[in-house]
Amino acid sequence: MSLSADDIEALFTRPDGSFLCARWGRPIAPVIFGLADESLPIFRAAIRAVAAHAGVPMAETDPEMGSNFMLFFTRDWSDLAGVPDLQALTGQPDLPARLAEAGADQYRLFRFDADGGIRACLTFLDMSGPLADAHPGQLAETLAVRAMLTFARDVTPSPDLAALIRAAYAPVLPASATDPSHALRLSARLIAASGNPA
Fold first, then answer.
1. Three-class DSSP category at 139
2. Region label for 26, one of left (φ > 0), alpha (ψ between -120 and 50) or beta (otherwise)
3. pTM, full prediction
4. What class, spelled out in words, does domain 26-148 have in CATH?
5. pLDDT band at residue 196 under the 50/70/90 scheme
6. What highest taxon heads this organism's lineage (predicted)?
């Protein structure tokens, strides 16, 4: 186990210095837009596997939103202009233009329940740039992992990260934490799970 408490804190500390570690508080009901039919099973399987690892149940539909984990694959950010009620869905005005101007290849947005747990995750990807050559299986796993917790930076799947996700979903921990000391609790659970002395 190589993630220290400081490492964990950094994973959830946003550019403005605030800390947020939140997990899903409801079953995940995914839907994928803009992906070729032959690739859909790969992404669905990755989402199921990562959710099962975290102990998050899957559902066909969310009672409030229909789908609460949405992935949008585009060839150009302007394609998002065709998404009905995009601004209402994201709460972000002029999102396609802003993503294009920033030169982004992906964008992730979380919505939260009253207790701070994740209510929804919207992920947008522009497949015309660096992501065009991504391996479908690796990309699918990466997107699923990044949606499990409110990571403040892009993360890459690894055994350490898998252990951290399991720790964050422990029932004794809160669905959401904004105090950096939460990283110490996560670190303690990782140490206990690894069997190594503190």
1. helix
2. beta
3. 0.93
4. alpha beta
5. low
6. Bacteria
